[in-house]
Amino acid sequence: MNKIMIVEDDKILRDELSSLLNNAGYETICITCFNDAYKRMIELKADLVLLDINLPNVNGECLLHDFRKKCDTPVIMLTSKTSELDEVLSMSYGADDYITKPYNPTILLLRISAVLRRYAKTNAVQSYHDVYFSTVKGSLMRGNDEQILTKNEIIIFQCLLEKRGEIVTRDELMTALWDNYEFVSDNALSVNVSRLRGKLAELGLVDAIETRKKQGYILK
């Protein structure tokens, strides 16, 4: 589940955005104190930030400019301004997209989805709770702790993550491994899942993978 941070001072709009995103399957974090917005944006490590330009005591574009020096998390600017100059300035400061209020909820969700897809392809990094999964490095990272995965473990975790909360059958995992030219027996699959479960436990995520007898596995 992708985590989206909302940096918006209008409470009604902030609550509407949070409800819209939650209903669309996203986890939301709402920033309500803007004096330390920059610090919170860095520390909370969202997958995407919705950032208003007009904030109390701080300019959203300046906030974006500073944020980009430290983090490449995708940012969509939200604003009531319609000036092309504001859009150009936001994009030049590193915004990934720009949408004006009042926004169309469907269009906003499509924009968010498109930015997240583009970012995932570019960075090949996905989040699970506060663990970051890199298919490029083949690792799971939580803070300063890192667990390196084998190719089989990467494939298995990717399958479980894509269908998080749903049962992934053993046949589905075997097929995914076969499609990637990794040939394992049924017993070897169990060993790989067990080792993956152990690496998640090393990062503090005990019982992250639940076994459903005669059905498969669920990543909780």
Provide tags for this entry.
220 residues; alpha/beta; Rossmann fold; Arc Repressor Mutant, subunit A; 2 domains; five-stranded parallel beta sheet; elongated
Write the topology of this structure.
Elements lengths: L2 E5 L3 H13 L3 E5 L5 H8 L3 E5 L1 E2 L2 E2 H11 L4 E5 L4 H9 L4 E4 L4 H19 L1 E4 L2 E4 L4 E4 L2 E4 L2 H12 L5 E2 H10 L6 H17 L6 E4 L3 E4 L1
Parallel strand pairs: 1-2, 1-3, 3-6, 6-7
Antiparallel strand pairs: 4-5, 8-9, 9-10, 10-11, 12-14, 13-14
Helix pairs in contact: 2-3, 6-7, 6-8
Report on this structure:
The protein is an alpha/beta fold. It has two domains: 121 residues, Rossmann fold, CATH 3.40.50.2300; 94 residues, Winged helix-like DNA-binding domain superfamily/Winged helix DNA-binding domain (Arc Repressor Mutant, subunit A, Orthogonal Bundle), CATH 1.10.10. Helices cover 45% and strands 25% of the residues. The chain is built from eight helices and 14 strands. The strands form four sheets. A five-stranded parallel sheet has the order 2-1-3-6-7, sandwiched between helices. Strand 1, helix 1 and strand 2 form a beta-alpha-beta unit. Helix 2 packs parallel to helix 3. It is elongated and about 60 Å long. The mean pLDDT is 87.
